[in-house]
Automatic annotation (TrEMBL):
The chain crosses the membrane at residues 6-25, 37-60, 66-84, 105-122, 128-155, 186-209, 239-262, 269-289, 304-324, 443-460. Keywords: Membrane, Transmembrane, Transmembrane helix. It comes from the Bacteria. This is Transporter.
């Protein structure tokens, strides 16, 4: 198949490069995306009105693609606010706290607790949940504050957010951009990659922490004594706290069982999780606050949706721009049945002019995810890495899902909050460590993980 590259194709590619450069300088790329939509729309539609409708249509198309994920994340965050206020979060985490008998065990318990909490409640709420409850216990067990912060980062903002197996926000965005109907292929392809990435990074981090503890044992002892001098906050617990502490994990566990046994994916899985969170929120508000719960639930939902929109507002604009690269979505954005995806066309043209191989393709996808992730947003790179995977899929024979999963891991681990200081502030704040120092400590384990994961991806491609 021969593809004729037009002026609109080259203009789109120019703005893609501008977006990547802007993100590389740690700046938000929204204005370049808007200008790209405006100028490309003007060229394709042939007028000012067409240019402006292209900008607006792109937001609607992207919003429709992401709305289900925005809603479920907002509902789960709203529920986490209720759990925190009732003290149910403390009861959920207290069994894990009792397992931390020494520093070695504390590292893995904190990490695994953060991972599971992030899968179900997303990393931002999980940071507050795990940090507030398990951080003091882990420090008391002998794990330095920097060790707790590393465990929370690598397991939560790394493993959990880059896979997002339960809520499926990340794989849904990546899959849409890559041309899949649902996130299942990307999720399946990410399993061997995240096993590699997770094992290499966490084991490397654990070894480095143990070495640091031996070299700086006296300093860590003073740190622990200073932290333990602070009195812990007393929590008022009642039967509603216990009720929510039992019902919430059981309900979500049943959701996971239903997703596996009934093969629920994509929108069906999202609907199940969102409805579960909303029902528990409604029941919990009524039980805890009585008739005042009719008003209280509004506050929780408002907070939840403010969080969801805050996270996804820039992603919608970025996604709208890169969706011009995907055929079906480009048709909706330009309102033209003859429209083609710019990135898809470039992939075909590239295959006809440049000899490509799997190692090169994997390295480009990895580099794209890392560079775009430098803006500090874990989800900003996903529309691009998904589009890149679709582009290379047109150029050479490979497993598009594996390539998309590699780009997703690279983008989220970089931008989600493991190796850049401006993405580490929540964990750094709750553990009291310097975000620059935390980024420096995470750097070597994450780079080692990238190398190992890329090698595995090349083999699987």
């Amino acid at each position: 198949m021969t593809v004729a590259l037009t002026a609109a194709h080259w203009l789109f590619l120019f703005w893609v490069l501008v977006v990547i450069v802007v993100m590389g300088f740690r700046k938000d790329p929204l204005i370049p995306c808007i200008l790209g939509l405006l100028s490309v729309g003007w060229l394709v539609k042939g007028g000012v009105v067409g240019a402006f409708t292209t900008v607006f249509n792109s937001l609607i198309v992207a919003g429709n693609e992401f709305w289900g994920i925005i809603v479920v994340i907002s509902l789960i965050v709203a529920l986490s606010r209720l759990l925190s206020e009732t003290g149910a979060d403390y009861l959920v985490m207290s069994p894990a706290a009792r397992l931390m008998v020494n520093a070695d065990v504390a590292f893995w318990v904190v990490g695994l607790a953060m991972m599971f909490a992030s899968w179900f409640f997303w990393p931002s709420p999980a940071t507050a949940l795990v940090g507030a409850i398990l951080f003091p216990v882990a420090v008391r067990a002998g794990l330095p504050a920097i060790g707790v912060a590393m465990a929370m980062n690598l397991f939560g903002h790394g493993i959990a957010l880059s896979t997002d197996f339960v809520i499926q926000g990340a794989p849904t965005i990546t899959a849409k951009a890559a041309g899949f109907a649902n996130p299942a292929p990307v999720i399946s392809a990410s399993v061997p990659l995240i096993i590699t990435m997770g094992l290499v990074t966490t084991v490397a981090a654990f070894v480095l922490i143990k070495r640091d503890m031996k070299a700086n044992g006296a300093a860590h002892k003073l740190e622990r004594e200073a932290l333990m001098s602070n009195t812990e906050t007393k929590r008022e617990l009642d039967w509603v706290s216990w009720f929510l502490a039992v019902v919430t994990p059981v309900a979500f566990a049943l959701d996971v069982v239903a997703m596996l046994t009934l093969n629920l994916r994509g929108g069906d899985a999202t609907a199940l999780l969102g409805a579960t969170a909303l029902v528990i929120l409604a029941v919990g508000c009524l039980l805890k606050f009585g008739m005042e719960g009719l008003e209280k639930i509004t506050d929780y939902l408002r907070d939840g949706f403010m969080f969801g929109i805050k996270i996804f507002a820039p992603v919608i604009v970025i996604g709208g721009f890169f969706f011009m690269g995907k055929g079906d979505l480009a048709k909706a954005i330009f309102e033209l049945k003859t429209a083609t995806g710019f990135l898809e066309d470039f992939g075909v043209a590239l295959s006809q002019t440049v000899p490509l191989n799997k190692p090169f393709v994997a390295l480009v996808t990895l580099g794209t995810g890392i560079i775009v992730g430098l803006d500090g947003s874990g989800f900003s790179p996903l529309p691009l890495v998904g589009s890149v995977a679709a582009t290379f899929d047109k150029a050479i024979a490979l497993d598009k899902a594996t390539l998309a999963a590699l780009g997703q891991i690279a983008g989220v681990w970089t931008g989600g909050g493991t190796i850049i200081p401006w993405g580490l502030i929540p964990v750094a704040a709750i553990t009291g460590v310097n975000p620059i120092e935390l980024a420096r400590r995470n750097f070597v384990p994450v780079v080692l993980g990238f190398v190992a994961t890329t090698i595995v991806a090349i083999i699987l491609l």
